[in-house]
Amino acid sequence: MSAEDSPTLVSTPVSEKLTKKALTADHPTWCPGCGDFAVLAAFYKVLERRQLPHENIVTLAGIGCSSRFPYFVNSHGAHFIHGRAVPLASGVSLARPDLHVFLFGGDGDGFSIGGNHLDHGARKNIRMTYVIMDNFVYGLTKKQTSPTSPVGYKSKTDPTGAIDQPVNPIKKLLAAGATFIARTHATQINHMIQMTERAMDHDGFSVIECLSECVEFYPGAFDPANPRKGGEFKLIDEKKWDGTPEDEVRHDVTDEIAAYRLANVPFPGLFGVFFENDRPTKNAFERKWIETTRARLGSPTDLEILQKTFDRMK
Amino acid sequence: MSAEDSPTLVSTPVSEKLTKKALTADHPTWCPGCGDFAVLAAFYKVLERRQLPHENIVTLAGIGCSSRFPYFVNSHGAHFIHGRAVPLASGVSLARPDLHVFLFGGDGDGFSIGGNHLDHGARKNIRMTYVIMDNFVYGLTKKQTSPTSPVGYKSKTDPTGAIDQPVNPIKKLLAAGATFIARTHATQINHMIQMTERAMDHDGFSVIECLSECVEFYPGAFDPANPRKGGEFKLIDEKKWDGTPEDEVRHDVTDEIAAYRLANVPFPGLFGVFFENDRPTKNAFERKWIETTRARLGSPTDLEILQKTFDRMK
Amino acid sequence: MSTPSALPELASAPTPVGGRADLRPQNINDAVIRLAGNSQDGIQTAGAMLARLAGRSDQEVMTYMTIPSTISGGPSIFQVRIGTGEVLSAGDEADFLVAFYQHSYQDHVGFLKEGGILLYDSDHVQPDLNDRRFVYCGVAITGLTVEALGGTAKDKGKNIFVLGLIAAIFHLDAEKLMGLIRERFGGKNESIVNTALMAFQAGYSYPVGTLLSTRYEFEARPKTGRPGQVTMDGNQALAYGLIAAGVRYGAGYPITPWSTVMEILRSELPKYGGLFVQAEDELAAVSLALGFSYSGYLAVTGSAGPGISLKTEAIGWASMAEIPLLVVNVQRGGPSTGLPTNVEQSDLYQAVFGSHGDSPRVVLAAANVEDCFYVALEAARIARKYSTPVLILSDGSLATRIEAFDEPDLKSIMQDPQPDFTPRPDGYEPYPIGGITKHAPPGTRMMGGKYPVVTGLEHDEMGHPTGRPALHMAMTAKRRRKLKQLAEEIPLPEVYGSPEGEILIVGWGSTFGPIREAVDRAKARGVAVASLHLRHLHPLPNGLDSVFARFNRIIVAEMNDEGLYGFGQLATLLRARFCDAKIRSLTKTDGLTFRVKEILQGVLP
Amino acid sequence: MSTPSALPELASAPTPVGGRADLRPQNINDAVIRLAGNSQDGIQTAGAMLARLAGRSDQEVMTYMTIPSTISGGPSIFQVRIGTGEVLSAGDEADFLVAFYQHSYQDHVGFLKEGGILLYDSDHVQPDLNDRRFVYCGVAITGLTVEALGGTAKDKGKNIFVLGLIAAIFHLDAEKLMGLIRERFGGKNESIVNTALMAFQAGYSYPVGTLLSTRYEFEARPKTGRPGQVTMDGNQALAYGLIAAGVRYGAGYPITPWSTVMEILRSELPKYGGLFVQAEDELAAVSLALGFSYSGYLAVTGSAGPGISLKTEAIGWASMAEIPLLVVNVQRGGPSTGLPTNVEQSDLYQAVFGSHGDSPRVVLAAANVEDCFYVALEAARIARKYSTPVLILSDGSLATRIEAFDEPDLKSIMQDPQPDFTPRPDGYEPYPIGGITKHAPPGTRMMGGKYPVVTGLEHDEMGHPTGRPALHMAMTAKRRRKLKQLAEEIPLPEVYGSPEGEILIVGWGSTFGPIREAVDRAKARGVAVASLHLRHLHPLPNGLDSVFARFNRIIVAEMNDEGLYGFGQLATLLRARFCDAKIRSLTKTDGLTFRVKEILQGVLP
Ligand SMILES: Cc1ncc(C[n+]2csc(CCOP(=O)(O)OP(=O)(O)O)c2C)c(N)n1
Ligand SMILES: Cc1ncc(C[n+]2csc(CCOP(=O)(O)OP(=O)(O)O)c2C)c(N)n1
Ligand code: SF4
Ligand code: SF4
Ligand SMILES: [Mg+2]
Ligand SMILES: [Mg+2]
């Protein structure tokens, strides 16, 4: 058997239209006004537009407010343990090329307890789309300093203001080798939709850091970044490769050093695609190995392969 | 009590000279020819030169061939569990400003299972000197692919050659925020000594990636990099700030982007200091908080502080 | 632990008082007041003030609260039980229910005892007045609060208005309460304090006489010769207990219901020259704590079940390297993420057996809020004396429950945090086979010139790794022996109730109160039931078998599952040790604390 | 498991043979050969060929080896026991010792039985010829090898030279051995094969007759009607068992002695269209495996103790979310990093109780190399049927020990790895309270339009998180019930030896062989000792109490510590369940497998 054979059996596109209604599950338990609602709305929109086979959508998450996402999407899904959603999703992705693996989580889940898995998922370039709802705080556990909390932020674990330098998510992802890295904002639903679509079209480990406000424990965290509140939402000006002189100064998303430099722009920073390249995925490498191996063997059954091995052990 | 008061009692410099003999403990269990012997020799040399108070040297490690280091140094030391030596060392460093905290380990210990702790130790800038003996392989467990194994390396877990893109340690450390990052080679004992001395003089989280050959499972890994074997050992040309035109093109170790660029040089890469800056340590921040708090309180005894708290709970 | 002073009459009355509330005696010595609203209504603030007032009035008090499963907002209750006798549990039934909303009324009226008083916000609640079991007392809480505060405060202030109402009904000391309000809101700007006081006054001066024919008054029973009381919740008691025990360093990662311990320590330790680090995860937290302990400062880490699972490898290292360490587990409902905001005692197995290999450790559990304080001291004493990891089990009910207890005599209790840096003589062995390990922290001069390495590999007396068969046997025995030595010094707990008889209820952790109250109630009914509370769970005290021999049935009541073979976790440990088939289980896993009547039903034939 | 065919005479003889070796019968049916040298000498290669030859010759065989604690190099032994009767343990004493160096001689001569033969390299070893207990047979192994190979190969080839010598002394089938040499070195270049064959010939043609007056020959006792044998070590058997069980995906992280399982799976699974991932740590490994299992493909993860400690949180999720998963623990000496290259059975507690909360899981243990294969099948069957995590315990002695066993009938055994993607009907409930959970893997169409979420929070039948008290009770019971149902279908293991009597030795895991051999030897001495082997450790099979009732003493022999109360880990579990005070322990923690005589000494009065 090959992992590829089987799922295709059932993934034949289904004729029923994927409506928002069909995608809606439990009513979110988030606080009224929480930025995560917008992320959910954008995700519904993307799925409606793309009309993937309903049964092939998988929504996975770790633990946190944001990680409750899978309950609110009517798709196959799993709500895992804190910080380990990337390897869970890697298992799903590597075994099942027929599925669209979406992963949602928070800054604590992704950059603190889960930070190592993020890096290794990135360097191995395992195909999945991962949206990190960054609210600069631990929401579910009620206001402790998170790895992205800015210096000075007063939380329950830093009553006089946070002192540790925060993680720079974009730099972290670049250094680790993620092949698609973007940044967006929960108040910018169209931009969010656009980023999500590009991420899911990317064949590799694609991550979107989405600033998403925690109105309960860090209200106004992104005020300056929020155009609705008079802030600025500065987009990355991507190269159009049109040969014009203006294009010279535009950002080449395949340029790692340039992306790293853009990641230094201070808060609220830039939004859009920082980096994208098409390094082969681990999914592809492993599949190739499987195929080469099997081709070399001819087409024996599983029983024949094992029998042969045992014969050598006589 | 303040953590600072006490240790000074006992750390009064000792008159006996710190000789190699006094520093030597068990005979290393490493394979004859293992690169780690040279790292140990360099460390003895550094300690002999610096004449730290013997009792204030602490040698810590996780698990791996390289992590057996503490047994071979006659100093206070601990041989911890796999991958968690950075937080162990952080505890020692934060509680005991009187101690010189040295940490040794392998690429698996540091970049694979311990990768997250490395990043968080770096961003928090916890004072310690960490030497990672990178042999591109899991030595102690006998030849599995390590996070730095190059693509194509044939190990027991990649019989047809490694396929995952390896970690780039320098990029990882830069992105995480380490404040001293250097690279050296076990065959270059003088360079190693020099790097170690600069690292220990750096007030912050200082890391040295030291290429150290595993003669048992990856002999010749660094042949091209080994001048003794006719390879090249290309040093980073650091800025001298002498105003000369030649200095223009030299590397500014405080320039993060430049350092990131240098990290892209393909194997065997460059050697020397990639990055150094003097961001305040977590040790300093926390101590300042302690001092401000205690200054505000006046000089009550521990009993008085707790009694006052209880009085408020009546 | 508090000693019984007087039996709470209302709560121990086996038959409902019945009839009308105004038939109840004016003097009461026990009342259960449940405030039911939404979590943003500040009912916890009001409830906590009642608890603190009781503490200051030398009364016993215990609170109980629920946390909604939504992230913020949602239905929530806060319950206060106040008594002049001993208060052992938060109460099975309420004497007095305050319902802020219709859902509060509907969800909780079943908890009100017959003859109890329903105080409801008539602006929101329409009770079924035909149900003649209760006394109805409707007050336009919302409207009157808005009116009193001038309409600017929206819903804010209702909680304090209700506090005033309760003060009037129970004849509480209004002056003291206003003092508490001033303390509570004092740090903020003046107008907030004034608004709160206005709300209180409005409630206090409400003409309750028009609705109720009786005013209640707590019997004045001053506890002679005892010090004053302090009022706090279990996590506070635990955190301050650690400080009293000389713990100055620690590390943790947030998780409900452990987080507040770490938040307190993070804020408080710098005052003592110490430090608490919020780590990137639980693996780092326990490792940091071990770094602190290795450095000479007995340190603490903690979590709830999921985080403790992540710490088991490092705890095993502490066993092997014989490093003292305190590990707090504020248990919640399990397994996995489970029921984060509910209570359970299902992590005992993990505490005792959770690491690979034979890795002996000490396990203690706190009985009530007061004991959270003292158990921390005992844990630190043991960790230091035996150079061993000690797990302290608390749980989600103790974490948030407020109790008043006799103020500890800090002067005689405070422990010195200072490590021993005196130079060690020549011939020092880090791991003496015959003795108990006492590490020389780094910074200590070794006069023989040989410096120690502590290690998780099996080792000889000097800490050198070794695979020598005889040595592993000897070292395993050494690590076992010290805990056996500890077992010898642990006092055999006293039986509560008749020292022999038909039934002995054995409990551990927060079931302490309900089990005692069950014994009291059974006694009142003339049934001979006794109880035994185990605070040291591993090692167990010696001599339990002789106690068990005096009873015909031993029933271990605990909040965990009966397991595959019908026995809860402590019951299993006891059966394995004593092979006494009389030992049976009374277990439950509904995420709620034991009600006294559940215990009685479970144990009485 | 092999059934006993004939008792090994030499090994079961209670009194030493004594006198001179040439007095021994020409026909033997059991010989213990110990090769002692340094690990780089290739003694494992030579030993493994002897084992394989025995397997091909329908003989029983068992090997035993030590790994030095230095990273490479250092003293090492490889022991082969070959018999035409049943070989149950690697042997308490050697009949034949090959000493490559002086230290090999010194360290191992005590292991040679009286009358045994010492074959030594006279270029390196000077034995004490005055010690008349042994037969001395000095051969200039180094010199002759160098001579035979032309001096270019340094020390390489000594192992094969010795193989030739042994073949001559034991009258082994030289043709078959040369075939094995060709197979072993065949992949590499031709000259290597030729060199090896030259070394073999040199040893085989050495005039042993000048030194020994007797040649030994194994009795020919063809096992009629049985299939051929396969020869492999325990980790190979386990890995291939997993493949036969339809496991196609897995993830792990290296650790001794688990690593070779993962190395085999990493190389083999692609042939079957599957995949094994080397993860960044054990936390990731178990999570990846859960991702595979969640996707529909029953997956495996594994480690030794330290890594299993890291997996306990995720295993708890598998309990709660009811995801099938296989978790292999190849146990080593503990606690902590412990004794990585030694054997111990001290992770049983962790296997059963290692996660927080009440998180039921299944625990099985392999008895011998053959059983490593079959236990994998049983584990996969249970995991699939009950949608549960199953822990498989093996240990460091099984991992590297080579045995020959009857070739499995793969045709009837092979399991289909294919997930069930058939669309689920309307009304599908992921977590039916009444039934056993059978997840619909992603990719499965849900005809009712409602797609399932699997979760580690407590949940209702649909997977919605809930804190409802009654539901947590019901779901906890559901998860417990399925394991009780499993317990009903597990066969009660048969008693080996007399079905009732004085002493019953209970064992689990790799103590199987030595315990059986102890029973045989006791029988030979006329003492009525029986044994019972437990393969299903959690849940335990029902009905053990009725077996225990037939014996006066129940002694649980296991390689772990006696603990605080005097009982090993399985003994503790059995005592807790049955409260039978007859159940006592025979434990040891010297990092070595049980010797038969240790068991006899321990159990006989
Ligand atoms: C092992 C473990 N540790 C800790 C927790 C407690 N916990 C739950 S969510 C969370 C962090 C939440 O922060 P984030 O990931 O940023 O998500 P948010 O709630 O802000 O969306 C923590 C610490 C847990 N469930 N498991
Ligand atoms: C939790 C845990 N997992 C795995 C191991 C096994 N292990 C020991 S050392 C090691 C890796 C060694 O590689 P590296 O860190 O590069 O050190 P080296 O031996 O190459 O110097 C591993 C996987 C362990 N001891 N503990
Ligand atoms: S606590 Fe914050 S992050 Fe969580 S649901 Fe509420 S607003 Fe959103
Ligand atoms: S195995 Fe490799 S890394 Fe380990 S001691 Fe030997 S040469 Fe060094
Ligand atoms: Mg967050
Ligand atoms: Mg390495």
Characteristic terms for this protein:
heterotetramer, A: 314 residues, alpha/beta, seven-stranded mixed β-sheet, 13 helices, globular, disordered N terminus, C: alpha/beta, six-stranded mixed β-sheet, 35% helix, binds thiamine diphosphate, binds iron/sulfur cluster, binds magnesium ion
Q: In percent, how much strand structure appears in the residues of chain C?
A: 15-25%
How many E-type strands of chain A? Answer: 9
Mean pLDDT of chain A equals 93
The low-pLDDT segments of chain C are: 1-25
- Order of strands, main sheet of chain A, comes to 2-1-3-4-8-7-9
Approximate helicity band of chain C: 25-40%
In the predicted model, the low-confidence regions of chain A spanning at least 5 consecutive residues are 1-13
**Average pLDDT reading of chain C:** 89
| Shape field of chain A | globular
Give the helix tally of chain A.
13
Share of residues in strands of chain A:
5-15%
Shape of chain C: globular
Please give the largest β-sheet of chain C: 7 strands, mixed
User: Whole-number radius of gyration of chain A?
Assistant: 21 Å
Strand order of the largest sheet of chain C: 11-10-12-13-15-14-20
Classification by helices and strands of chain A: alpha/beta
What is the quaternary state of this protein? heterotetramer
Ions, cofactors and other ligands present here are: thiamine diphosphate, iron/sulfur cluster, magnesium ion
User: What is the string of SSEs of chain A from the N terminus onward?
Assistant: HHHEHEHEHHEEEHEHEHHEHH
Q: What is the number of strand segments of chain C?
A: 22
Give the number of helices of chain C: 20
